[in-house]
Design goal:
The protein has one domain (3-146): 3-Layer(aba) Sandwich (Rossmann fold), CATH 3.40.50. A 5-stranded parallel β-sheet has the order 2-1-3-4-5, with helices on both faces. It has 148 residues and is of the alpha/beta class. 38% of the residues lie in helices and 18% in strands. The mean pLDDT is 93.
C-alpha cells in the first residue's frame, strides 16, 4: 500500500479561524478527515504533520525517508522562501505535489513566487480543501504509474 505524507507549514493549524473567503471554513482536522476519506477510497495510507517551524518540517521529511512514496505539501508562507525545506524535498527524491487553499496567482505579487514549485511535479491551488483531495488523487496515480 502506498503511503503519502501530508505536510502543512505555518498557520495552517489556524484553519477555521483564518479568513474564510481565502482559506475556507473547515479546520485542519476537518480537512484531514476529507483527505482520509479519499485515501480510503484509493486504498492508500496518509500521514499528517503540521508545524510552524521550517526545521521541524525538514526533520519530518527526513524521518519518513524510505517509508513514504510521495508528499503533498502546503508550505504556507514558506512557499516563498523556504530554501532548507526545498533542499529536503530535493534530497528525498519523491514526487511532491504543492497545494494551496487560495490561489496565490490572484493575490499579492510576493505570493506568486514559489521556491517549492521548482521541485514539485505540479501545483493545485485555489480550490480550498479540495486542493488536497485533488492532489492525493493525482499523486496516487503518479506513484502507481511509475511503479509499473
Amino acid at each position: 500500500m502506498a503511503s503519502f505524507l501530508i505536510l502543512n507549514g505555518p498557520n495552517i493549524n489556524m484553519l477555521g479561524r483564518r479568513d474564510a473567503s481565502l482559506y475556507g471554513s473547515k479546520t485542519l482536522e476537518e480537512v484531514n478527515q476529507e483527505i482520509k476519506w479519499v485515501a480510503n477510497e484509493l486504498g492508500v495510507e496518509v500521514l499528517f504533520y503540521q508545524s510552524n517551524v521550517e526545521g521541524e518540517l525538514v526533520n519530518c521529511i527526513q524521518e519518513h525517508w524510505g517509508k513514504i512514496q510521495g508528499i503533498i505539501l502546503n508550505a504556507g508562507a514558506l512557499t516563498h522562501y523556504g530554501l532548507s525545506l526545498k533542499d529536503a524535498l530535493i534530497d528525498c527524491r519523491l514526487p511532491v505535489v504543492e497545494v494551496h487553499l487560495s490561489n496565490p496567482s490572484a493575490r499579492e505579487p510576493w505570493r506568486r513566487v514559489s521556491v517549492i514549485s521548482e521541485v514539485s511535479r505540479g501545483q493545485i491551488a485555489g480550490f480550498g480543501w479540495r486542493s488536497y483531495t485533488s492532489a492525493l488523487r493525482v499523486l496516487a496515480a503518479i506513484v502507481e504509474e511509475e511503479s509499473r
